[in-house]
Amino acid sequence: MIPLRWPRLTGALLLALALALGPIPAAAQSVLATWGLGVTLDPLDGRGRGLGSVGPGLFGTGVVPGDPGASLDLIVPTVAVSMQSSWLQVDQDAGSATLSGSRFPAMGIAYPVRDWGVLTVTYGGVLDQRWMLVRQNLLDLGAGGAGISVTDQFVSDGGVAAARVGLARRVTPNLGVALAVGRFTGSVIRTFTRSFNPLDAGVVVAPFKSGGRWGYSGVTATAGLVFDVSDIVRAGGTLTWSGSLTAELTDGSEDRARKYDMPLEFRGGISGALGAGLSAVLSASYADWSGAWSSLGGEATAGPALSLGAGLEWTSPSFLGRPLPLRFGWRRAKLPFRLDTEDPVESTLVGGFGLQLAGTANIPLAQIDLGVEHGTRSAGSVSEDFWRSTVSLRLAGF
Amino acid sequence: MLRLLPLFMVATLVVCQNDTPTALDEGSLPVEPVTLEVRLPWSQFVTSAQVVGGFGRADELRVGTIANAFGGTLNARTLMHLESETSGSRVAGVRDSQTTIVGGAFLLRFNPDGSSNQGPVSVSVGRTSTHWDARSATWQLAVDSLDGKEEWPEQGGGSVRPLGEAVWDPLQGDSLEIFFSPSALLTVLDTTALEFGVRVDMETPGELVQVVSGEIQIFAKVEGVDTVVTMPPAHATDLTFIYDPAPGPPEGFRVGGVPAWRTVISMALPATVAGTPEACALVTCPLALTAERISLANLVLSTRANEPGFQPTDSLLVHARSLFAPEVLPKSPLGPPIFRDDLGITLGATLASAAFAPGGERSIEVPITPLVWDLVQGTTGSGASTSPTIALLSLNCNPVSGSCVEPASVAFSSFAGAGQPGEPFLRLILTISGQVGLP
C-alpha cells in the first residue's frame, strides 16, 4: 500500500485557496502583446519548461492543458498547478524599462475512472493581451486659448484562456489515445484615458475615457496520441482544432464584436533513453495564424508560428533520499504576430530540477518541478531580455 | 515542509509585484483622439437670465464691518449685544463683595485680510441707547419686524454713550484693546439701561475694517491682595452691521452683497457644435454634444468695476448651484454644490478684489461641468430630471468644515451682462475619439 503522508484537510484547503487565486492576472509577459492578438502562451508545466519542451512526448505522467495524453498512465487522482514569474528588460526606440510579474499559466485535475481511462479537467492560458502605453503631450486647443498638457494612457488588460475536459486511454500496451474538448474563456478590457493637467486648465478637468470589455468564447478540441517502445522511446503528438474565437462587447454592441479564425495547431515530441537515468527530448509545434490576418488587418499581420525545443533529463541524482532529476534544454519560437513585417523570435536556454516529496518512482504523490528560462525576444525596434521561472506542484492520492 | 508547500505557493504569488508591459512606441496606440475647445456664445446656450436680490442677513455673516466714507461713499457700523450677565448687575454684585473695580476695556478682533487699511486706523466704541434687533437692524431702522418698524433716533445706530477710542495698527496684530476711562467704566457698570449693546465705529475716513469679535473685560482688585485680576469676559451674543448708502440696481450681473444678490441663468444647450477638421475626420460633424465628450464646461464671465464703496477688500468666491424651482423665485430651493473636488470642497471661482476696481476687469471661469453633463443626458446621475437653471451666488465657506453661508460680505461681484461688452460665454473642452475596438 502506498504510504500517504500528505495532510489531507489542511493541504486541500490551502490548495483550494491557491486555485481560487487562479484569475490572478498575468503580467509582465511581453511588450509584444501590443501586436495582433497578443503573445501566445504555451501550456507547459515546470518540468516541460526545464526541458525546453514545446509539446507532448515526455516520459512519465503529468496534467498539462492542451496535452490530454500526458495523464495517460496516472493511476491515482492528481492535481497539478503551475505558477510563473517573469523578469523583463525591455528596450525600445523610445527607451527601456524593467518589469516583473507572476501568473498561473496552468492548472488541472486528473482522475482515473474505472478502466475507462484518465479523465482530466484543465485550465490554461492561450493568449496574453496585457500591455499599456503612456505618453504625454501638449495640446493646442485652438479657440485662442492656451495649450494644455495631457497624459494619454491606453491599457489592455486580460487575455484568452481555455477550459478543457479530456480523456486519455491506453488502447494497447504501446499505444495511448487522448481527446479533450473545451471552450475559450477570458476577457480583455481596453481603455483609453486622456487626463488633463489641472494647473494648465486652472480647474479640475474630467479625464476623457473610452473603451470596452470584451468576453471571449469559442470551442476547441485536441486529439492526442502516445506511442511507447518499451521504456526506451516515447513519441507523442497532439492536433488542436479550434473554431472561431469570438470577442463580444459586454454591453452587447455588435458593431465592435470580432471573430478570429484560430489556427490548427500541431505539437509533437519524442523522448529517448540515452543511458541509465539519462534521456533526451526533441519537440516541435506549428500553427499557421495567417488565417487570423483578415480579422486583424492594418499593420498587424500574422503568420506561421513554429517552435522547436530540445533537452536532456538526468534522473539519477537524489536529495535526502528523494529523487532529484536535473534538466537542461534550449527552445526557440517564432511568434505569430508581426511587427513592421518582422517575425518576433523568442530564444531561450533553460534548466531546472524536480523534487519528489512523497510517493514512489512511478507514482509521485507530491512533486515539485522548477524550470528556469533565460532568453531574448526581438522584433523590429523592440528587444526583450527576460528570465522566467515556472514552478509546478503536483499532488496525488487525495 | 510538505505541509507548507501550498502556502508557499500562495505567498509567492501574493508578494510578487505585477507590472504591466509598457509599450513606448506611440504607433501601437489604437486610437488617436482630438481635443478641442469650443466657445458657445451667450445666445446659443441661455434662454433667460435675471438678477435677484435679498438673500440672507448681515447678522448671519457673523462678521461685522465698519467703514467711514469708504470709496468716498460707504459708511458702516458694527452692532453687538453682550451677554446679559456681564452688564452692570453682575459686575455690581462683584463690587458689593470684597472686590474693587479698577478698570475695563473693550477687546476687538479684526480680519486684516478683509480690511482696506494698510496702516493705523482709529476705532471707537460706544454703548447704544436704543433697543435694536440684530436680525432686522438697518442704517435707518433699529427694528423691522411684523410688529412694527422702529427708526433710530439718529440714522446709523442712534446716539451712543462713548466708551473709548483707540488706534489699530494691523502690523501690531489683529486685536485692539480700548481701555475705559473712569466715566466710561461707569457707563459700562450702569444697570439702569435695559439695552446693553455697543456700536463700533470707524473714525478714519476712507477705510473699511472687518470686525470678527468683541468682548468686555473688567479688571478688579481684591481687598488685601495687590494683584489685579481680569473678570471673565463678556462676549457678544449678537453681531451685525448696518451700512449706508445701499447700492444701486445692477447694470449687468451681480453676485453677493448684504443682503445677497444672485444671478439666475436658465440654459438650453445645443445638440451639436461645430467641429475642427481634425475632429471631423474622426466622427460625423457637426459634433454631437455628449457627456462622454465633455471634459470641461466653464461659464466665463467678465468682471466689471463696482460702484464706489462696494469694492471688495478680499477675494470673493462665486459658486454655481442648481435651482430646483426657478418659477417660484426668489424662494426657489438651491441644489447641492455642482462641483466638488476630490476632497469634497465646493469648486467655484475665486475672484481677486482687483478684478472689480476700475481698469481691473478680467475674465473669470465658474466650473459647471457636472451640470452640463446632466443637461446633455437629460437626467442627473441618480436618475432625477435635471434643472436647466443655475444660480450664481457668493458664499462664505469654512475651509475646515466645508459649510457655507450666504451672504459673504458687504462687497459684491459685478459682471458684464447679456448684450454688453464682455458678454458671458460657455467654454467647453471636448475630446473626440473613434471607438476603441479590438485589433
Describe what is shown at a glance.
The complex is a heterodimer of chains A (398) and B (439). Helix content of chain A is 7%, strand content 59%.
Structure description:
The complex is a heterodimer of chains A (398) and B (439). Chain A has one domain: Outer membrane protein transport protein (OMPP1/FadL/TodX) (Porin), CATH 2.40.160. Helix content of chain A is 7%, strand content 59%. In chain A, the strands form two sheets. A 14-stranded antiparallel beta barrel of chain A has the order 2-3-4-6-7-9-10-13-14-15-18-19-20-21. Chain A is elongated. The relative contact order of chain B is 0.21. The longest helix of chain B is centred in the N-terminal third of the chain and has 11 residues. Classes of the chains: A mainly beta (398), B mainly beta (439). At the A-B interface, helix 1, strand 2, strand 3, strand 5 and strand 6 of A face helix 1, strand 1, strand 2, strand 20 and strand 29 of B. Strand 5 of chain A pairs parallel with strand 1 of chain B.
Attribute tags:
heterodimer; A: 398 residues; mainly beta; Porin; two-stranded antiparallel ribbon; elongated; disordered N terminus; B: 439 residues; 2 domains; 10-stranded antiparallel sheet; 6-stranded antiparallel sheet; 42% strand
